[in-house]
Amino acid sequence: MSPLPLADRLRLARLALWGELLAPGVTALWSLLALAAALALLDVAADLPGWLHAAGLAGWLAAIGLVTYRLTRIARPSDAQAARRLEEDSGVGHRPLAALDDCLAGGDAALWQAHLRRMEKQAEGLTPGWPRPVMARHDPLGLRFAALLLLVIAGAGGLADWHDRARRFLLPALDLPGLGPSALEVWITPPAYTGLTAMALRPGMGAIAVPEASGVRAVVAGGWGGASLKAGDAVIAFTNDDGGGQRAEGRITGGAVLAVDQGWRTVAAWPMTVIRDALPSIALVGQPEPDERGRLQLSLDASDDYGIARIWLEIQPMETAAPPLVLPSPLVVPMPLPGDKPRSLSFASRIDLAAHDWAGQTVRLIPKAEDGAGQIGSGEATVVSLPERIFRHPVARALIQWRKEVSEAPRLGPDVAEKLRRLLSDPDAIGGDARVFLTLALTQRLLAAESFDRDDVRDLLWNAAARLDDGGLPAAEKDLEQARRELEQALAANAPPSRLAELVERFEAAMDRYLSALAESGMETESSPDSETIGEDELNEMLDSLRAMAETGNREALRRRLAELSETLSRLGEARPPGKADQRAAEIKAKLRDIARRQQDLLDHSFRKSPSPTSEDEGEDSPAPAKPSAAEARKAAEAQKALRDALAKLNQSLGDHPTTLDDAARSMGEAAKSLDKGDWPVAAEQQSDALRLLGDGARDMADAMESRRAKGKGGVIARDPFGRAQQGSAHRDDGTTKVPGQVETQRAREILDELRRRAGDPRRPDLEIEYLRRLLKQF
Which residues cross the membrane (predicted)? Predict the structure, then answer.
């Protein structure tokens, strides 16, 4: 490779000289620029007073100008300096380029020419070098690197909105006469669901914290130029209003600075932190526990930064090894919300899912909460087994079993209808309850049809079973819960005192019905001498306080008292778990019921085989009915004897039992003898007597068991919700029942007079007058 021409090597040497001359000035210039960029990205200008910001910016500009001026005054390297630099970089002992420029003044010309040829040869080997480092001499402390490091640090966190930061750095906020506005108002309005009040901003008030989606409104009066409102990345232009000012409105969704600009300058700016709305949190506390009536007792903790709008439970069935073709939809159970959008709450509640298809199955409970912004938070799923209600009444248990059969296999509807027909043939089996009888009759009619609504049949059978087991308690309890929910909703909606008073009256009426049903349901608890009972005076006092709080509009106190009263009533409704005695009684009743059913079948068979009383009066042309064979009579006699032996065995296992059961066994034996003789009519009469005696014996046995249970354990008397002694199905005074005094009697008389006055007022609605008259009939 041929060496570069001498002219090119001189040019490179000159460039090396230029680099050494310009390096200090250029380094100083980019160090000043890096320092300014770092300060801009760090947004230092936002925290400086306008005059100090302007002074610092002027000093920085002066430094830039001075360095630039010095750079322009640097002299251009000459050709001699470039030649000398090339000779120095090459390290030659002589100066060949200078010798080539010299002229011979006198002497030997041949010797001079030989010297020139030797210098030309040396010049051909000259090599230009790199510029020499000079910054260590000009910047011994290395400040240039400090500026570069500061720029790297600032760029790590300030590049997102670098253009706004650079603008604030280059345009100091100076209040110059005639340029700034004469008035500035900025208001921040948080979302309504936060419950926070509006906030007015003043210039220079410092950093602000703003909820996300807050509204911002700014008004500018006077000043030079159009104004704009900047909230993070959003820029909102002001519009002229009728008063000659400018107005802007928007919504804050993010950003670190809220600023109002007018013309080329920033009128006011506030460092801003946008607070994101957190998701509500909710969790089940502990493991939900079932009670004896099939309800699930659970406790919940929930919280939200601005308040919870509603909470609910989502119930999902567990996956099975063979998943169904169609996945069932989750069951949503709304939960009562104590208070108006509380920020934190801890409460216990009960849910009744005993009538649902999933009762007895393992499910997942997922608590969920929603805040005012519509955000939904979910708690950790809890795996539980939904409780099944324990029915003590044998007929109620049978109804529930038939309900399951219809649910799982609707084709069994006719079979269940036949079972209901047999059950309805003995009204005593359902205690003579007309409502249960009509409900089961309707159910039997629906099942006997070609098609039926599965849900309707399920509801009818469940309601009948629940009424058999609890009397009218389920309906009364449902009405009480509905009245309580309506009152809680009215409190949350800030209803007027008149509405609250009306709902308190409804709640009181529902509570009276519930207590009456509770006292009649036989769900008394076995108390001990030191057990706590709820007195009538205590309940009346709580109700009086509810009415007073409703009339005065004391919502918080009303909410607390309602919660206390609801908890008291829920303790009253806790069912006594069936013990060994209850299970034994249920088994005995079931066996007696089965014997009575089999005896009814035998009686129906005997009636069908007996000759008709009118057959003797019929004409000679009428065909005579076929007479039963002797073999058929013997078969019926054997069935009757087997049933008699079963009853005798049951009587023997009972020990002390009603004598009517022994009489029933004797009637069965006489019926078996009549059947052996083929005397069907006499056998039918004897079987009818046996069936009647079985019913009497079952009732006597039930009364005896109830009387023994009412005595309690250790002589303790069972009591109703008001603490009164209960003996069997009747209430008897054991000396502890409080007799109403003169004050209570006077209060009752006043209420009665008021009812009579309202019933005689013709201006009242006919429906109300009719209700009052029915109410007064018992007085």
Answer: 21-42, 48-69, 141-160
Whether residue 730 contacts residue 519, with contact meaning beta carbons closer than 8 Å, is answered with no
Q: Residue 87 in 3-state DSSP?
A: helix
Residue 651: the pLDDT is 84
Euclidean distance between CA atoms 480 and 473, whole angstroms? 10
Helix (H) or strand (E) holding 312: strand 308-317
- Please indicate, yes or no, whether residues 101 and 208 belong to a single structural domain of this protein: no
> Do residues 718 and 528 touch, judged by C-beta distance below 8 A?
no
**Element holding 733 (H helix, E strand):** none
Q: What is the mean pLDDT of residues 388-397?
A: 80
How far, in Å, CA of 279 to CA of 372, rounded?
10
d(CA 709, CA 526) in angstroms, rounded, equals 9
681: Cβ–Cβ under 8 A, 6 or more apart, which residues? 610, 611
Distance separating alpha carbons of residues 138 and 65, to the nearest angstrom: 19
Q: Are residues 606 and 718 in the same domain?
A: yes
Give the domain-ending residue among 240, 275, 310.
275
pLDDT digits (tens, 9 = 90+) for 226-252: 788 888 778 888 888 777 678 899 999
Give start and end residues of each alpha helix (H) in 92-200. 96-101, 109-124, 135-138, 143-158, 162-170
Same domain, 465 and 480: no
Is 730 among the domain residues? no
Strand partners, 314: 332, 366
Beta bridge partners of 302: 282, 345
Unique residue bearing structure tokens 């000659």: 244
In a domain, 390, yes or no: no
Structural domain harbouring 348: 281-385
516 and 505 inside one domain: yes
Q: Are residues 490 and 417 in the same domain?
A: no
Determine the length of the chain. Answer: 779
For residues 292 and 577, what is the distance between their CA atoms, to the nearest angstrom?
6
Q: Which of 754, 759, 750 is nearest to 777 (CA)?
A: 759
- Where residue 290 falls among pLDDT bands split at 50, 70, 90? confident
CB atoms within 10 A of CB 254: 12
Are 772 and 755 in contact by the 8 Å Cβ rule? The answer is yes
The burial class, CB within 10 Å (0-12 / 13-18 / 19+), for 536 is middle
Q: Are residues 338 and 198 in the same domain?
A: no
Quote the tokens at residue 396. Answer: 């109620």
Rounded mean pLDDT of the chain?
77
At 106, is the secondary structure helix, strand, or coil?
Answer: coil
For residue 164, tell me if it sits in a domain: no
Three-state SS annotation for 551-564: HHCCHHHHHHHHHH
Q: Identify the burial level of 612 via C-beta atoms within 10 angstroms of its C-beta, where 0-12 means exposed, 13-18 middle and 19 or more buried.
A: exposed
Give which of 361, 346, 211 is closest to 276, Cα–Cα.
Answer: 211
Taking CA atoms, 708 is separated from 611, 646, 703, 714, 716, in Å, by: 47, 26, 9, 12, 11
* Number of structural domains found in the chain: 7
- The CA-based angle 208-211-216, given to 5 degrees, is 75
Q: How many CA atoms lie within 13 A of 196 on its CB side?
A: 19
Predicted model pTM: 0.49
pLDDT tens, position by position, 28-58: 888 888 888 888 888 887 777 777 888 888 8
Amino acid at 751: I
Locate 219 and state its tokens. Answer: 């008004």
Sorting pLDDT into bands at 50, 70 and 90, what band is 125?
Answer: low
If we measure between CA atoms, which residue out of 201, 198, 199, 197 comes closest to residue 220?
201
CA–CA gap between residue 228 and residue 230 (Å, rounded)? 7
User: What is the C-alpha separation between 543 and 562, in angstroms, rounded?
Assistant: 9
Cα 591–Cα 596–Cα 599 angle in degrees, nearest 5 = 125
Q: Is residue 756 part of a domain?
A: yes
What percent of the chain is predicted at pLDDT more than 70?
Answer: 79
Q: Decide if 32 contacts 70 (C-beta within 8 A).
A: no
Q: Both 203 and 236 in a single domain? A: yes
